[in-house]
Amino acid sequence: MTDGMSRRVCVIGGGSSGLTSIKSCLDEGLEPTCFESSDDIGGLWRFKENPEADRASIYHSVIINTSKEMMCFSDFPIPAHFPNYMHNSLIMDYFRMYAEHFQLTKHIRFQIRVLQVKPRPDFSRSGQWDVETENKKGEKEKHIFDAVMICIGHHCHPNLPLHDFPGIDKFKGQYFHSRDYKTAEEWRGKRVVVIGIGNSGGDIAVELSRVTKQVFLSTRRGAWILNRVGQQGVPMDFQLNRVLKMAQSVLPFGLVCRLGENKINQRFNHSLYSLQPKHRLFSQHPTVNDELPNRILSGTVQVKPNIRRLQGSSIEFDDGTVEDNIDLVVFATGYNFSFPFLPSNMLPVSGNKANLYKYMFPPGLERPTLVVIGLVQPLGAIMPISEMQARWATRVFKGLNKLPSMDCMLKDIKHKEETIAKRYVTSQRHTIQVDYIDYMDQIAYQVGARPSLLGLLLRDPGVWLCVLLGPCTPYQYRLRGPGQWDGARQAILTTWDRMAGALKTRPSDIPEPKQSSLPLTLTVGAAALALGYYWNIHNHPSLLITLDPTTWQDKIKPYLPVLW
C-alpha cells in the first residue's frame, strides 16, 4: 500500500465476520467496501425459507449455544433484556443494532457476487488485488483494492457423503442435508433417521421427535453432551474462566478429561443412554443440547450406530438391527469450505485443510494483504474471534504489525496440525479447531490488547478478580492497547447483572439464598493468587512495597459478590 493515499479494502461477505471487519477497517482509517451476494446482512444467522446456493442456511428454531455475554462484539454489549441464549431472529436484531450504531451498512454493496480475486501484476511492490464482481443483472465490474478480507465462513457447501451409504440411490423415502431442513411439521407421524450427532443433528433430532412417530439418531462414535444451563442455572460458558484454563494447562490431559466426564455423567450416564464415545471429552468438538437426554428417556429418540446399508425403505445399522418404513433421512454431516474466487494455487483446500498462519494469513504471499476472517471452529463463540482477527489484520495492512518470516509461519502451521492430530479424533470438523481463550490471547498479544493480569492486580484488583475468575468475556480485550474502549471496565463489572437481568422477569420479595460456601473457582483462584504472589515477590521484590495486602483487600471486597 502506498503511504499518503486512501487504502481501500475489499471485504467479501456481510455476515458477523464481515460486519466486524468493516468496523475494524474504519477504526484504523481504512476505506472498506463490502460485497454481499444476498440482499441483507447476517450471513449464517439470517433465516430464509428457501436455501440459496453456496450460502449458509439455518432452520427456523435455531438458538445459539453460546451465551450473549460471550458472543457479543467487545465494544458493543448485547442489551440486558435479551435472553442469555438467543434465537436467530434476536441475533439478527443485534447485528442490525451493531451495524446502525457504527454506521456500517453504507459500506456494503448488496446483491454483488465476487467472481475473481487475483494479485495485480505489480503485487510484489504494491500488494494490490484485482477484484471482479457481478450484480444481480449479470453486469460485471472490475476494481482495484489494496487489501482483501475473506469473510464467507465455513458453512456454505454441505458435505453429503452419499458414497458411504450403500443403497441410498434406491432409497424409497426422502433424504437431504441438514441445511435444507426448516421445520418439523411436514414430517408429523413419520419415521425419521438423523445421521450425525453434532449440534445440528442433535437439535433436529429433538425437534422432529416432538411430532414424528419415531426418530433414530445414528452416530459412528457417540458424543459427550453438554448443557446450555450450567451450575445453579448460570450459562454453561460462564464457568469457563482463566483459572480453569490455567489448571487445564498444567494438569495431565487424561485427568482433565476424567474430571469433566465425571461431572457430565452426573447429569445422565452417557453409557446407559448409548451415547458414550471411546474418545475423551476434550478430543471432539462438544455437542450442546439440553433436551436430548429427555427425548431419549421418553423413547421418542433412539440412538443407533452407523448405517450399514439402505434397502428400499429399510435401513440396516452396523449392529445388525433393521428399521423398516423409514420416510426421511437427514444428513447432519457438516460442511466443506473453499475459495472459488481465488487462483487455485493460492490457497488450496484439501480435506477441509488450508495452510493459513493463525488460520488467517497465507504464508507464501510477498505482501500480507490477503486475510481470511472467521475460518475457525472455536470451543466458544465465533463473533469475538472474528473481531480480534480483524483488529489484527487491519493493523498488518497498515504496517503497524509485522508477520514473522514464511519459515516461522509454516512451522507454526505444522505445529498446530500436529497438536490437533494428537488431541482430536480424525474429522473434517476438527481441522480448524481452536480453544477460545488460548486463541483470543494469541491474537490479542499480536494486537497489544491481551489483558495484563499483573497490571490489573496492581491497578484495579476488582477487575482483576473478574478477569481471572469470571467468564472470559470479549470486553477483557478492550481494557488496553489499540482499540481500547472506555466502557470495557464497566462492562466487565456488570456482566453478571446483564446475565441475571434477562431472567428476573417476575417481581419477588423472597430474598436470594446466601451461599453456604465459596465456589470451587474462588478456592482455586485463592491458590493461584498465593502461587502468583509467591512467584512475584521472589522475582520482583519491589512488589512487596507496591502491593500492600491490607489496601488490596479493601479494594477487592466490593467485587466479591460478582463471582456468584
UniProtKB/TrEMBL annotation:
Which residues span the membrane? none
Q: Give yes or no: UniProt keyword Manganese.
A: no
**Gene3D superfamilies tied to this protein:** FAD/NAD(P)-binding domain
- What's one Pfam family the UniProt record gives for this protein? FMO-like
Mind listing the GO biological process terms from this record? Answer: lipid metabolic process
Q: Which InterPro entries match?
A: FAD/NAD-bd_sf, Flavin_mOase, Flavin_mOase-like, Flavin_mOase_5, FMO-like
Subcellular localization, as worded in the UniProt entry: Endoplasmic reticulum membrane; Microsome membrane
This enzyme's EC code(s): 1.-.-.-
Task: Specify the protein's topology with respect to the membrane.
Answer: Single-pass membrane protein
Q: Which cofactor does it need?
A: FAD
Q: Which reaction does it catalyse?
A: hypotaurine + NADPH + O2 + H(+) = taurine + NADP(+) + H2O; octan-3-one + NADPH + O2 + H(+) = ethyl hexanoate + NADP(+) + H2O; NADPH + O2 + H(+) = H2O2 + NADP(+); trimethylamine + NADPH + O2 = trimethylamine N-oxide + NADP(+) + H2O
Alphabetically list the UniProt keywords: Endoplasmic reticulum, FAD, Flavoprotein, Lipid metabolism, Membrane, Methylation, Microsome, Monooxygenase, NADP, Oxidoreductase, Phosphoprotein, Transmembrane, Transmembrane helix
Question: What does UniProt give as GO cellular component?
Answer: endoplasmic reticulum membrane
Q: EC class of this enzyme?
A: oxidoreductase
* Superkingdom of source: Eukaryota
What's this chain's function?
Acts as a Baeyer-Villiger monooxygenase on a broad range of substrates. Catalyzes the insertion of an oxygen atom into a carbon-carbon bond adjacent to a carbonyl, which converts ketones to esters. Active on diverse carbonyl compounds, whereas soft nucleophiles are mostly non- or poorly reactive. In contrast with other forms of FMO it is non- or poorly active on 'classical' substrates such as drugs, pesticides, and dietary components containing soft nucleophilic heteroatoms. Able to oxidize drug molecules bearing a carbonyl group on an aliphatic chain, such as nabumetone and pentoxifylline. Broad spectrum monooxygenase that catalyzes the oxygenation of a wide variety of nitrogen- and sulfur-containing compounds including xenobiotics. Catalyzes the S-oxygenation of hypotaurine to produce taurine, an organic osmolyte involved in cell volume regulation as well as a variety of cytoprotective and developmental processes.
Which family does the UniProt entry place this protein in?
A: Belongs to the FMO family.
The name under which this protein is listed is Flavin-containing monooxygenase
Query: What is the species listed in this Swiss-Prot or TrEMBL entry?
Result: Oncorhynchus kisutch
